[in-house]
Write a structure and sequence with these properties.
With about 325 residues, the chain is α/β, with parallel strands linked by helices. The protein has two domains: about 5-130, 3-Layer(aba) Sandwich (Rossmann fold), CATH 3.40.50; about 135-335, 2-Layer Sandwich (Dihydrodipicolinate Reductase, domain 2), CATH 3.30.360. About 35% of the residues lie in helices and about 25% in strands. The chain has a nine-stranded mixed β-sheet. A six-stranded parallel β-sheet has the order 3-2-1-4-5-6, sandwiched between helices. Helix 1 links the parallel strand 1 (about 5-10) and strand 2. Helix 3 runs parallel beside helix 4, helix 4 packs antiparallel against helix 9 and helix 7 (about 185-200) crosses helix 9 (about 310-325). It binds NADPH dihydro-nicotinamide-adenine-dinucleotide phosphate (NDP).
Length: about 325
């Protein structure tokens, strides 16, 4: 594609994230725009086409999706489906020759993550994760503090990502066959990510515990998990995730001080402070807008892919190790 072209994105799965975050963000993006949709709900096809003036040849359902390969107006397929459908649609998108954005968690297990990565490599298309925080200024500031050792060597991170689920007990997020897990795969990935960019390292081992207080509601998926991660430098992290209470923060202790974000992982604006009295203050922009523009810029201009598929796979390896530790009574699992 030509460098000054805006890339066309097709959203796959028009649920709440596509409807309330991604489609509105795509009205403001500089490097990409909403060009098409893939939906299993005919009434959404009609209402979205009208609302966003979509061309008829850019509207697909799950059955005719593969014909997207012949559509020159779609450059990127963004998979925003229940987790069990990520691998299938990411792989089909790659086979259709489209660049791929995959929502978190990347897939149901590590093997599926590998299949997505290799399908994208084989088709020579780019693969990015929907990890919006990597394009977000407070998170980027945290990464810079860590890299520059502004507060010394990091020795400890505490990270929480949780909300209280009270909705329909039959929703796909609480159905293991469609979600692959509970709080850990849904919110826990944010706490894992905070621990990793909070230390600037990948963990070498993990031990975890599970708590269940509403088993009648969480019949099929984990409710609350805590885990401790060890890093090569000796730094440690304690993470908490839950579908039973609300928590949203990260705290990083270094040898010369500390910094924290609270909130740390919602749609923003985030907020942060440091041990030397700084209040972090960045102008608010849609995280989804920044994320999709960054990925389009990676394709158009070769800028860094801030959240590549390998990162999604790494996080799934850690998720699997956390579940393994719980299954083994809290045993430390080497990564
Ligand atoms: P929703 O339940 O709101 O929407 C999912 C959509 O997927 C449905 O509306 C439907 O769209 C389609 N779908 C196809 N098959 C099924 C099925 N069997 N059951 C349910 N839906 C189906 O989910 P979200 O939009 O909240 O989440 C979608 C993905 O995005 C998940 O992977 C989630 O983890 C991720 N996400 C990421 C966020 C982030 O901040 N990065 C935030 C929220 C979600 P249609 O009617 O068009 O076919």
């Amino acid at each position: 594609c030509t460098p000054d072209k805006k890339l066309g994105i097709a959203l796959v799965g028009l649920g709440s994230y596509s409807t309330y975050q991604l489609a509105p963000a795509l009205q403001d993006t500089k490097n990409c725009y909403l060009a098409g949709i893939v939906t299993g709900t005919p009434s959404k096809a009609i209402s979205w086409a009208k609302k966003y003036s979509l061309a008829e040849h850019c509207i697909y359902n799950y059955e005719n999706f593969d014909t997207i390969k012949d559509n020159k107006d779609i450059d990127i397929v963004y998979v925003v489906l229940p987790n069990a459908m990520h691998a299938d649609f990411c792989i089909r998108a790659a086979k259709a020759g489209k660049h791929v954005i995959c929502e978190k968690p990347m897939a149901m297990n590590v093997a599926e993550c590998e299949q997505i990565i290799s399908a994208c490599k084989k088709a020579n298309v780019k693969l990015g994760m929907g990890y919006r925080l990597h394009s977000e200024p407070y998170t980027q500031q945290v990464q810079e503090f860590v890299k520059k050792k502004t507060y010394g060597d990091v020795t400890f991170v505490s990270a929480e990502a949780a909300y209280r689920s009270t909705g329909n007990p039959d929703q796909w997020r609480l159905n293991r066959e469609l979600s692959g897990g509970g709080a850990l795969v849904n919110m826990g990935v944010y706490a894992i990510q905070s621990a990793i960019y909070g230390t600037g390292e990948n963990p070498i081992s993990v031990a975890a515990q599970e708590f269940s207080t509403r088993p009648e509601y969480f019949k099929d998926t984990d409710e609350t998990i805590t885990a401790q991660l060890n890093f090569p430098s000796g730094a440690i992290a304690n993470i908490t995730t839950s579908h039973n209470f609300s928590a949203n923060s990260m705290y990083v202790a270094g040898t010369n001080g500390w910094f924290k974000l609270q909130p740390a992982n919602n749609y923003g604006p985030l907020s942060g402070s440091t041990s030397d009295g700084k209040i972090l203050d960045f102008p608010h922009e849609s995280q989804q807008k920044l994320q999709m523009d960054d990925f389009a810029s990676h394709i158009l201009h070769g800028s860094t892919n801030l959240a590549p598929g390998e990162m999604g796979k790494r996080d799934m390896i850690i998720v699997s190790a956390i579940y393994e530790s719980i299954a083994k009574g809290g045993k430390t699992i080497r990564l």
